[in-house]
Amino acid sequence: MTIAFVKTPLPIIGAPMAGGTTTPELTEAVARAGGFPFVASGYLTAEALAPLVERMRETTSNFGVNLFAPNPVPVDRMAFDDFVTALEPAAAARGITLDPEPVEDDDHFDAKLDWLTEHPVPLVSLTFNLPTAETVDRLHAVGTQVVATVTSVPEARAAAEVGVDGLIVQGPRAGGHSGTADPTRIIEDRATVDLVRDILAELAMPVAAGGGVDGEAMVGDLLGAGASSVVVGTLLLRSDEAGTASTHRAALAADEFTDTQLTRAFTGRPARALVNDFVRKFDPVAVDAYPAVHHLTKEFRAAAKKADDPHGLHLWAGTGYRGARDGSAETIVKDLGSRFARE
């Protein structure tokens, strides 16, 4: 029997989608369905995270919090300046003046980690980089399980070495940001189920998996490959409770958008999105510079959202995006996981 670090009636995990997409209403719906909810702490201060966690405690005692682990990539100033120059005409057309100075931050990591050790939660996951042994030890000391997002066998080995309790295996077909610890590497396409098998062939650890999930059949395939739970994000983007922008929702169902692509154009870190005009124009000149590019394009993307322009917006989507549907997230999670309910 597969050992699970997530023990919920249904083997479905609601992915932590930062930036307002994972709302309190969405996490509550996932919990009501019998799945495992994650509070997304990305882009939040510790002060902003606190009420979200406390609200989650009122719903369930079985949940997690996701953190962006610091992973600074030195900014190639010449390449960054060239990207700014390329973006300036499109920004000017929207009445936006770009700040050419790279902005760096660590997403308030230390403050959020401090808060989570003072107000322990059942589980913390980390993405964008592997946790340090010190981080794992601090969370373990207050009774919190720690899981790492991994995208390759070497990452899985390294995570095991620092003492994590389990792995979230993210395949390259997942929507939004890749959790890779090396955002500069070329991410080759492959099925998530194959990555799960490769990792479990080397490591005897609890594993959850996601990436490109398009429906119940793939949930079964991932569980059959040895995952104890399946992470879904894109399939929840059109749900009633998600904070997905209306422009993004419409694009997921529009005939106009027919493909997804990993691109660094929006944030300087590989992330899978629907291919729109922004991706076509700026991906060829995109640079590895997260979070500098994220900050650079933030106002541009906000303007596109306000103008209801899908071609200037980051339309995060995994390859299974055609499986996303309207309706309650509670129903969506039940439909995905009820056949695989745990005894």
From TrEMBL:
One Gene Ontology term from the biological process aspect of the record: response to toxic substance
Keywords: Detoxification, Dioxygenase, Flavoprotein, FMN, Monooxygenase, Oxidoreductase
Chemical reaction(s) catalysed: 3 propionate 3-nitronate + 3 O2 + H2O = 3 3-oxopropanoate + 2 nitrate + nitrite + H2O2 + 3 H(+)
One Pfam family recorded for the sequence: NMO
One Gene Ontology molecular-function label: nitronate monooxygenase activity
Cofactor dependence: FMN
SUPFAM superfamilies in UniProt: Inosine monophosphate dehydrogenase (IMPDH)
Keyword flag Oxidoreductase: yes
Gene3D superfamilies reported in the protein's UniProt record: Aldolase class I
InterPro entries per record: Aldolase_TIM (IPR013785), NMO (IPR004136)
Recorded family membership: Belongs to the nitronate monooxygenase family. NMO class I subfamily.
PANTHER family: NITRONATE MONOOXYGENASE-RELATED (PTHR42747)
Descriptive protein name: Propionate 3-nitronate monooxygenase
Origin organism lineage: Bacteria, Bacillati, Actinomycetota, Actinomycetes, Micrococcales
